Amino acid sequence: MGKSSDKHEGEASDVTVKTDEVLHDKTELIKHRDDEKPNELSNSGKILTSLAAGGIAGGIAKSVIAPLDRSKIFFQTNETRNYRFRYAIRWLKHGYRTEGLLSLWRGNTATLARIVPYSAINFMSFEQYKKLLKVEQAGTPGYHRFVAGSLAGSTGQLLTYPLDRARAVMAVTPGKQYRNLAVVFCNIFKEEGFFGLYRGLTPTLLGVIPYAGTSFWTYETLKAYAVRRKGGDATHPMLPSPLERLGAGAVAGLIGQTASYPLDIVRRRMQTGLQLGKGNKYRTVRGTLLTVYRNEGIYRGWYKGLSMNLIKGPIAVSIAYTVNDYVRLALHWFFGHQER
Question: Which of 52, 207, 210, 235 could disulfide-pair with 259, CB 3.0 to 4.6 Å?
């Protein structure tokens, strides 16, 4: 009995020693892995890379859909022309025949002057608001992602709005009238005063809250779903493919554009009313909505040009979100930090 007991005690002791050795080895391996991890970028580094990635993404996306955007603005601001998609294509063909191919990108310089800083601020702000609202922490309500997106969109619009007004004016006026942004700004300031640069800001902010919130929420939620569906773990997740990111961006753009479209009509009418000889016809959000409704109805008024938006919106958003992701990842890799 004594020998058997001593034998069992010895075996138990050996098991304990081996268990301790295994645990020690695992601890050393984890510490070794932690030591091998690249230093995380500082917050200022993340801000700079987000600004660069967002600016590049926005510029590429807007340049791709610039002709479609110009056509949409023309019909949005025209009271007498009914919109059909074939009419929009016909208008683009007419511009190409009479003024040349580059006329389809008229106003795109002003667009890029606005969209590059707007997109940079928009994507950078979203990353910062996500951090502030603890969006990626377990247990955080899903609507925080929507709030972060809405705040990011509002921040970008507030800081770059005069450029948006100038771009809309250039898109609906003859090329010889406004040759560059400086002329547009000087003319608006001279005729309408400083606050004329912010004409149409209210519907823009009212529209960007559901648009940006819905777009960011949809895109990030679909990306997270793709990661869960592919499997992996928190340390080594299976990242979404480029096609999955483009698909998520297209859905985000489709939903976001539709949610806020009537306010986009109001914004364009208020931005371009004076330049198109409408005087103060479009001064307030409520007044503009009622005027458009009485004269043109809901479908032909509030949703004029929506079919064009349902084409260009998903294209632009999918390109912008996907390019932003990959440029940011590339910049993080370049500076020695691999972001998952």
Answer: 210
